[in-house]
Amino acid sequence: MTTGLLTPGASAPPEPAPGVAAGAQPRGGRLVRPLLLVLVVGVPAVLAAALACYQLGARSVWLDESATVAIASQHGAALWHAIAHDGGNMLIYYLLEHALIGAFGGATWVIRFPSVLATAATAAIAAGLGWRLFDASRRIALSAGLLTAVSLPLVFWGQNARGYALMVAFATGSFLALVVVLQAPADRPAPRAALLAYGAALLGSLYTGLDTVLVVAAQLLLLAAYPQRAREVVSMLVAVAVLSVPLLVLAANRGQGQLFWVPAPSPAVLSQALTTLTSAGLSPNFHETAVTTVVCIVTSALALAALLVAWREAPRPAPAPLRALLAPLRSPLALPAAWLLVPMLLALGAAFAGEPIELARTSVLLLPAVALLLARVLHDPALRHGWGFAAVALVLGLRLAVVLPIYGVSPEPWQAAARYVMAVGGPTGGAALSAGGRSGASAGDRACVAFYPQDGRMAFDYYVRSTPAAARLIPVLPSTPWSSVTPFVERYTVPSPTALGRIVARCPQLWLLASHEGQRGGTAASRHDLRRYHALVAALAARYRHVSLRRFGYAAPVLVRLFGR
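Request: output the structure for the sequence above.
Response:
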């Protein structure tokens, strides 16, 4: 059986394969104008870039973004040590940020701009996948790209100095390259450029996020229906595995300690994953609304309908049992269905088995698959064309209703917390203590600043180190000078009683800033960190007469305490 893609000038295969291998043939035998494909791919890319660029610097840098800046700002051995401390996760992304910061500085728009480009690329590639899978259908391809572009989780990560947007772009690109390989005529070798692009995209995604392993399982399942391509694709996967050995070594040396904060599966955790998967919200980063529920229900229903259509339209050759079993994988809808279901089931199984998997963030990898499923079912041949576009417009409108309110909202507002500390300052902040209380500091004294965990120092430092206020603030936990950009990732340390006594003796006023300090309902390590934090607060309260508390944000609140004599 030939499984080739008909290309201009190619002779028709004797037995065209269904599904992925059927390819995108020019309708009616006419060549599709390149401009049309450019528009179908370009419009979603431009929309995605516009949504990610809008108010790009308005949201405060949060803890993870500040870790990106601190790690990427290192040089030489210090840079490698900082990346290795993170288990190799986001290795390529940190190197990219290192080059950008070295060339253009650490402005907010600079550190976030790679994610903007990655999100635009994801929308374009999703449209290209729709074009390849569904017979060059302009309607499906354009709708898939637009639904990918208008997705709250992708917009959010597209405005973040983290590697998730780049990971999704690479993973989506690997699926497009794989489709090109599978669509090649069976009597010819797979296109070398497509094979290399597949390996490079997969390797890039793995070196940006280890969760990419989950989508590789989906790709292997699809490959089972195309044995004529198994040797070429598996050889490339072996090469990718060999090149990933350094990453595996880094991850193994790091272990699961870096994921101590990941909660076990619970109704709340599963709900967060579902809202992410349906692009209905991003809890707890943003508050859920009635529109969140509507989008979640509508998207879930449409995705289930698409899966039913995939099952209904799957070819059923007989009588060979193996061919009958693998035939559904040759349906055009098989790729997005496998892309959605296989990683989701593997992640759920691993999470319930006790592996620390952050389900909501893993779900971001599957969003282009959901967009492809929705685009196909909304443009079902049984529906009139106008109804399909109307339905897509309705879904896009609902998605925009949850995207627009997030602009400028900072669930973890370190910028506001830093401004508050700098405004209150040192001894002039006596009025910020208890009502009517007075600080025992003289006009020449300066205030000290401590962090729990010390991770918060990175976010605070991002906004303070280049300001005059830094001279009036003495860092004591950690005590590294403001002029030094240092990674303090996952340092849940507290001073010994002796060291705490020296800090108190030195500091008439002491700021204590805390965020991600631990969770009552979290893992054992998280609960232990929280108890240690409460003990530190109690010890300081026993040594200072006046204490004030300000709370900034809600997703991971920044708690700012000012202790004074």
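The chain has two domains: 34-406, 414-564.
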